[in-house]
Structure formats: C-alpha cells, structure tokens
Design goal:
It contains six helices and nine strands. The structure holds zinc ion.
C-alpha cells in the first residue's frame, strides 16, 4: 500500500495539471526534459518529506527532478550510494519534496513519426502491474512508452509514467500493424473505454503529452491516431467511448499543421 502525498498544480510550459492527494511514483534518466515550476495557491512552494514507491525504470536522478530535491539529499536520507540501482517497489524517502512536477523525458531522435493511443482495457492498473503483466507475456518491459493513470491502485488520475521501454528508446510492443512498433510512440490510458468514459484528468494529461511529443518530434496531426485506426489493425482500442471529438478540439487549441 503506497502512502499518499499531495500534488499541486504546475502551470507554465507544460501544464499537465493534477490535483490533490496522490500516491508516490516516479521515473528515470532524463537527457532532455521539461520541468514545470510548482507553486501553491499562495505563490509559495510547499515542501514536506514524503515516501515514494519506486516504479519501473525510475532512478534517484529522476526522483530529484520530479520533486525538486538534490540527488545527494535523497541518497543521504536513504543511506544509498550513487552507484545503487533502485528496485521496483522500493520505498524511498524524499526529504523536503516540492509538489510533484510532471517531467516528460524526451530524447533526440528521428525514429518517432507517429503517436498511437491505446487503452489498457483493464479497470485497474498502474505502471508496476502493467510492467509485470507484460513481462509475463515474454516482453522485456512494458509494451507502451507512456502510461496515463486512472486513479486506481493508489495512483492519481492523469499522472503520467514514462516506461523503461521509452527511457531505453527501444522499439514498441504495442502495435504490430503497419510496422508501428518501429516508428510510433505508444501512449496507454489505464482503463477500459469500451465500457467507461475517459476522465477529464486523463484526457487533459493525454492532450498535454501529445502536444509536447508531437512538437518535439515534429509529428503531424495526421500521424496521431488510435490503435484501431492504424491500417490493418483489428481492434477497438482505445475503446468505442474514447472522446475523439473532444481530444481533437483540445489538441487543436494549441495550433495545428
Ligand atoms: Zn491498443
């Protein structure tokens, strides 16, 4: 059971806006990334110690970026050496953690030409459970590149996870059709949108993530699609209730080409 922590709005370059009370999670090495300053409603950054449960692919470096805490402080507080590798599920105390910032790791590459949107088709999941499920399928890591939580398993709806596959910049394991695994970034929303609606938190997080990725990798709008819209893909993914009209409206609000 993960302990809860508070998250606050981060507004600026990349507002993946999340609200209060959340569960601990994190991610990894970030050659290039964006960070958003987090400020309380009174304009003061609020800090407090918190416990974070390590998710797949997370490092002390990434935890430091997300909570705005020095790596040395995290190492010292937890009796770790800089050479130590964090283990999935390991509990790490973050001393004086600032409100969580969504950090999107990006890596210079000409590989990524498409963005494919999926749903997990499961009611409850998080980065850890999906990672383990995909390993049981024989894959070396989570099949997708990014996950957007739905608030189950102690997560915060709209929180984004970058998977170890993305951090390693490996081919995907999310869409064989049209050879998309070699050229498409796979984003999976946790949930089953064949029978439930996408929450506002998840949709906003998705739009912000897609906006950032498509701008960074110069991906045209026509190359952003649901799994089921990929030529030769025979699937309903990301579910018949996925709000495409609203998604495109929100995405277009940032300009299009
Ligand atoms: Zn899919």
């Amino acid at each position: 059971m993960r302990s809860k922590y508070f998250m606050y709005l981060c507004a600026a370059v990349l507002p993946i806006l999340l609200s209060s009370c959340a569960a601990p999670r994190m991610r990894t090495n970030v050659p290039t990334s964006i960070m958003v300053p987090s400020v309380s409603t009174r304009g003061v950054v609020e800090r407090h110690d918190m416990v974070h449960v390590v998710m797949p692919g997370e490092t002390v470096f990434r935890l430091g970026r997300m909570y705005d805490v020095k790596v040395a402080d995290i190492l010292s507080r937890n009796g770790l050496k800089s050479s130590d590798t964090l283990k999935m599920g390991q509990k790490i105390t973050i001393p004086g953690a600032a409100p969580l910032k969504e950090v999107i790791p990006v890596f210079p590459s000409r590989k990524w030409k498409y963005i494919i949107i999926h749903h997990s088709a499961t009611d409850e999941d998080d980065a850890m459970s999906l990672y383990k499920m995909h390993q049981r399928r024989g894959w070396d890591s989570t099949g997708y590149d990014f996950l957007i939580d739905n608030g189950t398993k102690g997560t915060v709806a709209g929180h984004m996870d970058a998977t170890p596959r993305w951090i390693a910049q490996k081919d995907g394991a999310h869409c064989k059709a049209s050879n998309m695994n070699t050229k498409a970034i796979g984003i999976c929303l946790i949930g089953n949108f064949s029978k439930e609606n996408v929450s506002d938190e998840q949709l906003k997080a998705l739009v912000n993530l897609v906006k950032y990725l498509r701008a960074y990798y110069n991906i045209p709008l026509k190359n952003i699609m649901g799994h089921g819209q990929v030529p030769e893909a025979a699937t309903e993914c990301p579910g018949k209730l996925f709000p495409w009209k609203r998604f495109w409206e929100l995405l277009a609000s940032a300009g299009s080409r």
